[in-house]
Amino acid sequence: MTEPVLTFTDRGIYCPAGDFFIDPWRPVARALITHGHADHARPGHGSYLATEAALPVMRHRLGEINAEGIRYGEARRIGDATVSFHPAGHLPGSAQVRVEVGGQVWVASGDYKTTDDGFCEPFEPVRCHAFITECTFGLPVFTWAPQAEVAREINAWWQACADEGKTALLGAYSLGKAQRLLSLLDPIGPILTHGAVEATNEVLRGQGYSLPDTTHVTPDLDLKALKTPLVIAPPSALGGQWVRRFRNASTGFASGWMRLRGIRRRRAMDRGFVLSDHADWPGLQEAIKATGAETVFATHGYTEIFARWLSEQGYDAHVVPTEFGGEADEAESAA
Question: Which residue from 56, 115, 129 is spatially nearest to 87, judged by alpha carbons?
């Protein structure tokens, strides 16, 4: 019987032939990282390998690390395994990791979305024998509207706030979602940012990603002098002391979880915008079919339900428990 290319351990997804881990959640000697969100790129590893586009944010978040960059599509030999990184469409620099050993190809998806958002590198399906897929939104209820439609909703809300003399406060995770939203905004007024968002903006601008002008909200910023502003801040900031400086405001939140009314109510936001950096139900199906894989491992999300559905479609489907989050940067807030 052929040994599996990747195995599942208490430290993360492991490749015996290459003696490395993919997105490990406990310290290991060698880690291959799909993207810079805190549940996938954790501190304490001996060495890191990630895409060249992902490394600047990882270094910003993790500090001094022993890290090496790799180009999309570049084949790298590690032990008896050949690895390459391929665009995942989740956020700038995000990747799927392809691992080949003895002619068997496995792909670990990391987090991904299949629709091109016009900002980050678009998803590219990778043919393989086995596919390890996230299924954060692995239920039929999670189907995303076209991005242009959601952008119109957000800009109309901002304009309505401006007409009423209110500040529009929009909650979004500081890496990925915030920058995607910035790329969708009309120039209705000044765009203000929380420090966590602005620091990430600076890193991505330095890499050549195009973002509109933003103003960092500092204690000495004269908010009264700014007319019709929109503020982007991580969710944790919207529930704390920081937000109290905006006295006449309307709050919104952009997340795939806004599809569920109960979560919208618990968030106590004025508006919820359904915008996710993860694949929706049709996207998951599309991605898995495109791989040609016969074996599929479902991780973080509606794993049991999704694996059952996959089995009904004829796949050799399995559930893999992991310590990855869903649509959230764990350093900021759970979704």
Answer: 115
